[in-house]
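Notes continue from the previous slide.

Worked example: a multi-chain complex. Inputs as given:
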Amino acid sequence: MELITPSSVWQTGTDSSLLDIFWKIRVPRVITLFFAGIGLALSGMVFQAMFRNPLATPFTLGVSSGAALGTIVHMLLPLPFMFWGISLQSLFAFSGALLSIYIVYGLSLLKQGFSSSTMLLAGVAINFFFSSLILFLQYLSDLAETFRIVRWLMGGADIVGFQPLVTAAPFIILGVGSVFYFRNELNLFTLGDELALSRGMPVKRVKIILLFIISLMVGAIVAVLGPIGFVGMMAPHICRLLTGPDHRTLSVTTLLFGGTFLVLCDTFARTLIAPAEIPVGVITALLGGPFFLWLLVRNSSAKGFF
Amino acid sequence: MNESIIKINKLGLTVNGKSILREVNLRITTGDYVAILGPNGAGKTSLLKCLIRYHHKFSGMIEIFGHSIYSLSQRSIASMISYVPQLNGTTFPFTVEEFVLMGRYPYFSPFATIHQLDRQAVDEAMQHAGVIQFAGRSMMTLSGGERQLVLIAAALAQGAKVLLLDEPTTYLDPMHKSRLYALLQRLNTTLRMTIVLVTHDINQAALHANRMVAMKNGTIAFDGAAAEIMRKDALETIFEHEFTFIKHPENEYSIILPES
């Protein structure tokens, strides 16, 4: 196996297939994962603040599995990937993501005083429901389709070229923009609806806008990369320990950390058992599982994150 | 000169099918220091929560500074009314200064950084509440009494002329309790703030507030001076409980004797 050194990329006379690997596979993949990491980490940060729960993420709340279900339905139907310049797969993912968040949020409107932990449980239930539907669809598919679905579910499905990034980036940028626009509101969310309202924040409106934009962003990322878990939960917690709970700074550190973290995980995924690749979702979950447990233990002893 | 700043007319509230408030009529004027008493479940907290539009599906009418509460933005309500909720042991991960600064939210703009005026208001509020010495400490390390004062500081930073408090003294020791009442007195007399205080601390309320309102079964059962409510028949009807009174040794007030 030949190494692509930094200097060889700029030199003339380098094997053109190596250059192709660098420019058409490595570079787009790193940039796409950096963007995806940003989006996933920030979405976790927003959900944790909004639900005032350290375990709330698009993953635990069923948004990811909703998006995954949408994507898989699209994979199984005889539909084109693009339709009039719009990625149909993304549209299906959006629908799934929005459906889950609509159910979770709709439940909270049914009854006043529906606590955020109940909402989280509802999300977990929806997560299970959609995951079972995915299993059901897998069961119905043939072997080749099943393999495609399983590989995609592991996350980080092989990215070639800039098309995936072009599809997802607008939604990630929209999400990042809204996080910075609502940085003060995110702080107020962590105080609870009552205090946030009394400080003058239109809680319901901000909640709906953020849920919508963040779900779109998660849908867009899941559509191109598969449901990559745990980045959304871990990154904000680590950053909270590093730079404190104030979202005016936390947003910046979470953004940088999330992007870097996913790129590093992917580097491990590519090199750990090279030339074979481990799906990046496997790596993040391997790191995330123990972290999740540590968080639970820590959380029961400390006074809670919010 | 003493105009009504809060007018409540025939307020009714039903939450999850249960009637919480009915036919509540109340006027609060500038400079009032109102204590709201009443048994548990009488609707005291719900009344305060209607005033900050936490409950928004009520019947009847609430006017704040002459505007219907429905016509106001959440932000403009916050610039007129600040609120200190029940503590319930909730802690926040922020430092005292960060927390008080969040009280300036009504004046924040999404595109601007924190203004010098906001810093100034935060300092003043912390000074008033006597919490400036722990500005840099985490809210999680404060005692219940200190935290209550910080909550009031944050409400003061909001710059509203009306301050609503929901059982602020419940978890406080005698020293912090007395500091809190002294603070409220100062805010009322020096800063001319209007204070509305929900409390079970009947004696303290009678000694400090200039007006007593009692609620029972979701409606106003009494509205008048402390001297009128601190009578056996009046209080016993409201609380359905027997009280023994004695005269305060330093003034002419009747106070409730603790039960033996």
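Summary box: Residues 174-189 of chain B form the longest helix (16 residues). Chain B touches chain A at residues 15-16, 49, 52-54, 73-79, 81-83, 85, 90-94, 98, 102-103, 105-106, 108, 110, 140, 155, 158 (CB under 8 Å).
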